[in-house]
Every structure is written in C-alpha cells, then in structure tokens.
Write a structure and sequence with these properties.
single chain; alpha/beta; two-stranded parallel ribbon; globular
C-alpha cells in the first residue's frame, strides 16, 4: 500500500508518498506532471494507492517542517526510494553530504572511482525521487555554478542559502 500526503513549505507544496517501509517520493507539486509521475510510480511498484496518512509521512512532515525552521539538519525518516542499484548507491552518497556543504559532480564521481561517470551520476541525481531529504541540491558544477535541479534552480539556490552553503556568492565545498 502507498500512502500520500502533502506539506506546505516556503518553496511550495510538496507531495509525500510512502509505503510501510519508508518514504518513497517527496517532490514539489508544480504541475500535472507530478501527479502523472506518482501514478507511474504506483503502477511500476504494483501497489495500491491511498490518499491517507501514515506514520512515515507524518514523520517526514515534522522533519521537513523543522528543517525549514532551521531546527533540523539531519533527517532520519526511513527511506524506500525505488530505482536501479546504481541510482540507489548514488542517492545514498548524496545523504553523506553534510548540511551547509556542497560537493561537485566530479568529486561525487571520483568517490565512485569512476571519474568518467559524471554524466551517469548527474542523471541519477536528477532522478532522485526524494527532494531535500536526499540532498541532491547540494551537488554543484565544478566551476561552482548551480546546475540541474528538478525542483528548479531558484529552489536549489534558496535551499543552499537556507543551509548557509551560499555566502556572498561563494559556495562552501565539502
């Protein structure tokens, strides 16, 4: 069974989808394509969808709310993202980037001992189904520029400023 709920944030409404094991999906609702992606997700996982509350979504809502109030820097809500094994490894590596720090795609690829895999890693980052909690917003271009964020570069900039990773135009590298 998949459970869904919504949370209002300073950056817009987010939809949360979880199963009994953890949070599967957390994304900003910008248009009807979000709902289509959720329907596709439910179909791929072959799970029944329920618009109802559960403890994991409630935990995610509390933690996200505390994050936006600057009362939380590390999330511990159980996660259950769906993706390939490679994507899951990339997403796990994102969770190791501390609050207030950034990492370049190149450094991320080097940590996989695969500097030539920058594009594959960037693609996996772009398919991250759990915004903010799996912090793909903390990955930047090698030149320090903000690049690629499914929620929009304006949100990425806001999140990094919120975390103190953007100070007077400088990016704090991990």
């Amino acid at each position: 069974m998949l459970f869904s709920d919504k949370i209002e944030t300073p950056l817009g409404t987010m939809i949360l989808v979880s199963n009994e094991n953890g949070l599967c999906f957390a994304e900003f609702i910008d248009d009807e394509s979000t709902e289509k992606r959720i329907q596709l997700f439910a179909k791929k996982t072959d799970m029944e969808f329920s618009v109802s509350k559960n403890h994991i979504n409630e935990m995610a809502k509390v933690q996200l709310s505390n994050y936006f109030k600057k009362e939380l820097t590390n999330f511990n809500v159980p996660l259950s993202p769906h993706g390939t094994e490679f994507q899951k490894k990339v997403w796990q590596s994102l969770s190791n980037i501390p609050f207030g720090k950034t990492k370049t795609y190149k450094i991320q690829a080097d940590q996989f001992n695969s500097p030539e895999a920058i594009r594959a890693i960037a693609s996996a980052n772009g398919k991250n189904p759990i915004a903010i909690i799996i912090p793909c917003h903390r990955v930047i271009g090698s030149d320090g520029n903000l690049t690629g964020y499914a929620g929009g570069l304006w949100r990425k900039k806001w999140l990094l400023e919120h975390e103190g990773a953007l100070n007077t135009g400088q990016v704090s590298l991990f």
